[in-house]
Amino acid sequence: MKNEKRKKDKMQGGRKIAVRCLTVLGIVGVLLLGLRFMMFPPYRQPEVTGSYEVEIQEFTWEDVSRVETFADTGENRALTVKFWYPKEEGRYPLVVFSHGAFGVIDSNYSTCMELASNGYVAVSIAHPYHAMFVKDVNGKTTLVDPDFFKSAMTAGGDHDPEEEEKMYLNSVEWMALRTADENFVLDTILAKAREGEDGPFQLVDPEKIGLFGHSMGGASSVALGREREDIDAVIDLEGTMLGEYVGFANGTELFNQEPYPVPVLDVNSERVHEEAERLAGLGVQYVNFYVGENAADYREVVFRDAGHLNFTDLPLISPILAKMLGTGKVDPRTCIENVNRVVLSWFDYYLKGKGELNLKDIY
Which of 202, 205, 275, 312 has its CA 20 to 30 A from that of 301? Predict the structure, then answer.
């Protein structure tokens, strides 16, 4: 009887422990779920203005010409790309997007949806180790490189000549990687389009190509617009045009003096615009404005009360995280909808030849 009682007590004790563990796990699960909804609450995507039904597809491509320098495995660099494109058959301009440092493939999901709904093949590139994370089509996840994270976070410089030169050398390295990524993606898309491959590739009009990007992605898009002869228009969403630096001397960067050859739209927050004007008053020229003075066709659009992340979807996806990284007082939905209209208007004018370029100087 005693043995049976001990056995019964053990079973009941085991059940109590199991119940307690399940209770604790349940509480932790609820807390994690609550944290997830706090960080990433449900949100409504901005409405698209176009009439085309949009399809979405992802690919991961290996660049056999480049070894992945962020890894010591000897593997080739692999890039994941996402396409937004009209379901209806036809030939549409190609527009390629590059995210900023620590961005993700869906940083400007709504912008790509807006473009595709209006008759574009829009493509976003996930830059491995520069993105906060990249999940390829096979389920492999690659996180941001810690050294890149640290160097990009401290890229503001402190006016110390040695630090400024270090920042310049970092920017050269970043632009080389980014433009190589974008070149590979563009060349791959155009090759598949020539071969008549199914899916979005057969919809691409290779004679009409635009580039745009946010922050570092804007800078690399501008750089690539200078390098390639098949680019027709570029948009830089608040990115310092790092690719326009061609050297470093006497404690400062040297600017490319060759006129910028492609129509370029420079989209900035009022804070960045005013800071650039303040520095100009001190005799320090902002590289973007220098490019504008020497470009074949340049336009700046300024957004009041916007922060750096307001030119992406992040304030809608994760308001708390976006605020930590930099947003303004502007309503995030109104801001990104206006950004999307500006992007569409620029590409409509230069890639489709549609009407007047109807942009306000300040939004």
Answer: 205
**Residue from 310, 340, 355 nearest 116 by CA:** 340
pTM of this prediction? 0.89
Predicted local distance difference test score (pLDDT) of residue 301: 98
Of 141, 137, 140, 106, nearest in space to 124 by CA: 106
Total number of residues shown for the chain: 363
Residue 80 backbone phi and psi in degrees, to 5: -100, 135
Q: Provide the Cα torsion 339, 292, 95, 84; round to 10°.
A: -20
User: How does strand 121-126 pair with strand 76-86?
Assistant: antiparallel
State the DSSP code for 234.
E
The residues near 121 (Cβ < 8 Å, ≥ 6 apart) are: 83, 84, 85, 86, 92, 93, 94, 95, 200, 203, 204
Q: Are residues 29 and 58 in the same domain?
A: no
CA dihedral sign of residues 170, 175, 176, 182: positive
- Establish if 356 belongs to a structural domain: no
Q: Taking Cα atoms as reference points, which of 122, 66, 67 lies closest to residue 340?
A: 122
Range of the domain at 330: 45-351
Same-domain pairing of 170 and 226: yes
In sequence order, which residues have a C-beta less than 8 Å from that of residue 101 and are 6 or more positions away?
130, 148, 152, 215, 216
**pLDDT per residue over 32-48, tens digit each?**
334 444 556 777 889 99
What burial class does residue 321 get, using C-beta atoms within 10 Å of its C-beta: 0-12 exposed, 13-18 middle, 19+ buried? Answer: middle
Indicate which CATH number applies to the domain containing 289.
3.40.50.1820
